[in-house]
Amino acid sequence: MSIWNLIIGMALITFAIRYSLFAFPHLRFPLITRQGLHYVPSAVLTAIVVPGMVIPGGQQWDLSLHNAYLLAGLATILIAALTRHLLATIAGGLLIFFLLRWALGQLPL
Questions:
Q1: CA 49, 59, 98, 81 torsion: positive or negative?
Q2: Among 7, 25, 3, which Cα is nearest to 15's?
Q3: Whose CA is closest to 46, among 69, 66, 73, 72?
Q4: How far apart are CA 79 and CA 59, in angstroms?
Q5: Which of 2, 29, 44, 87 has the CA that lies 20 to 30 A from 95?
Q6: Which domain holds residue 59?
Q7: Distance (Å, rounded) from C-alpha 94 to C-alpha 45?
Q8: What is the DSSP code (8-state) at residue 30?
């Protein structure tokens, strides 16, 4: 199979899925589906972020206190839960991450 056929096929499928919502504007999902879709952003974000926190090198799990990614991630979750403020969560998480990297001697200088 050609790589171009694969790319074009994926583009057509993506377009068809997204266009279907515009082509059928009166389409309504059942209540259970709408309730389930409410959790999709959290699930996707978790699936993207957690592997980077617990496997920072991409090779093996690191659940130690020397893992700045894990510690900063947990601190960021705490900041988000306490403040419910997006900018405070991002700024606080980044600040804690870089302070931890500096304190653990992991900053490449």
A1: positive
A2: 7
A3: 73
A4: 29
A5: 44
A6: 39-109
A7: 17
A8: -
Backbone angles phi, psi at 74, to 5 degrees: -65, -40
User: What is the predicted pLDDT for the residue at 14?
Assistant: 95
pLDDT tens-digit map of 3-43: 999 999 999 999 998 898 888 888 888 999 999 999 999 99
Assess whether 52 and 103 both reside in one domain.
yes
Task: Say what angle helices 68-83 and 86-103 make with each other, to 10 degrees.
Answer: 150
In tens, the pLDDT along 71-86 reads: 999 999 999 999 999 9
Residue carrying the six token digits 């990297």: 101
What is the Cα–Cα distance from 47 to 45, expressed in whole angstroms? 5
- Claim to verify: residue 27 and residue 43 sit in the same structural domain: no
